[in-house]
Amino acid sequence: MFAKAKAGAAAAAEATARSAKRTKLNGEIMLLQQKISKAKHDFGPHVYEAMLASINGPEVERLFNETRAKVDGLNAEIETKRAHIAALNEAGASHGEAVPPPGAPGGAAPLAAPPPAAPAPPGPATTGPPPGWKATKTAEGKEYYYNESTGETSWSLPVS
Fold first, then answer.
1. φ and ψ at 42, to 5 degrees?
2. Judgement on whether residues 6 and 60 belong to the same structural domain of the protein
3. What Rg do the C-alpha atoms of the chain give, in angstroms?
């Protein structure tokens, strides 16, 4: 009887540990997505300044290649973490656990890009976001927008 209870407690502890790892990995993925968004955002001003200073094409190409390598590296990290989440989900499923589906909290991928870092400025509500953008809310209920293609986020309604 004690052996059965001990085995049940061990299984529950393993399930909790897998869930905690999934949550941690999803948080890390969100941080990496923020880094990608920032790298893409910062790329524009750097190229603009290089072009404004009449620096030749090779410098602009170098800036692009640096940014691309950084984004590709971050995307590779995200894919590694998603594969780890999938492995944790498979391990849980093999133990009869209810595993969150992809896209759900604790699942294989987050639902949306994380919100922007600054607080939402006050302003009147307008019509919906432009194509490619989605509206979502923080855990506190504040609305923000994210671009599915670029991972960019904004507190204010993006203009198309």
1. -75, -20
2. yes
3. 21
How many domains is the chain built from? 2
13 vs 115, higher pLDDT: 13
Domain that holds residue 155: 112-160
Could you read off the pLDDT of 73-132 as tens digits, one per residue? 999 999 998 998 888 888 877 767 665 555 555 554 444 555 555 555 555 555 678 888
- Can you say how many angstroms the Cα of residue 21 is from the centroid of all Cα atoms in its chain? 16
* Count of other CB atoms within 10 angstroms of residue 95: 12
Tokens of 102: 């992809």
Candidates 86, 112, 82, 84; CA nearest to 99 is 86
Contact 15, 95 (CB under 8 A): yes
Contacts of 54 (CB under 8 A, 6+ apart): none
Assign residue 138 the CATH number of its domain: 2.20.70.10
Q: State phi, psi for 75 to the nearest 5 degrees.
A: -65, -35
pTM above 0.70, yes or no: no
